[in-house]
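Lab notebook page, bench 4
Experiment: in silico fold of construct C2
Operator: M.H.
Input chain length: 224 residues
Purpose: comparison with the prior construct
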Amino acid sequence: MEELAMRDYPLGVLENIIGSRGKEAVDRKLKHYGYGFTSTGRGKTRVYTITSLPNAQARFKAYCVFALGFDGNTNFIKLRDFIFYLLKDADFAWRPNEMMEEYLRREGRGMSSDTISKYKIRLKNLELFAPVGDFVYYKVFKHYGVQEHEVITKEEYNEAWRYYFEWRNDHPDEDSIPAYRHMYNKFGGVPRKQRKIEPNAFHAEELNILCALVSDAILEEVDG
């Protein structure tokens, strides 16, 4: 999973990296992502020289598409922000999806918990991140109409759900909604749990490339 660099690439090697076949398709894709290049030779003997690189955000997008297989229509600003916080902010990485959503909203880099879930699944499928054994226990509640979250203990989580199921057993003619409401009112929210994820040390090379690219892209954005 290498990043394109300023060096020579035989046509066949470059085709495999960027996923295009033939000179016209390769030229078109390199131009689309902002790479400067020259090429010499004919047919399969053609050699490309990458003469200049695009900005960090474009390189991040190219790496995600070429090396990691992300769709070209992905929102790469949101993906960049998520990976940046996941790799660089220890106070972010342990959080469940909904708490990540709240954290990013407060940082001015909002995205939905559904989007976060999709990114996590993709990164786990690529084996760049892996779930670890520990769960994070937390409760979800509304504060002045805004969804918020608070870490709780495993014992508090179990006690709340025990109360929920006991209420259901005591009221067999009621559906789940009143039980949720009573649990919410008694415990100040709905308890949930989610496994933590951590970087996979077996893919340190790819993670180091991603870390450098997202850091450079964020810095470019801040510097304007």
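Observations: The chain has a mean pLDDT of 93. DSSP finds ten helices and six strands in the chain.
Next step: discuss at group meeting.
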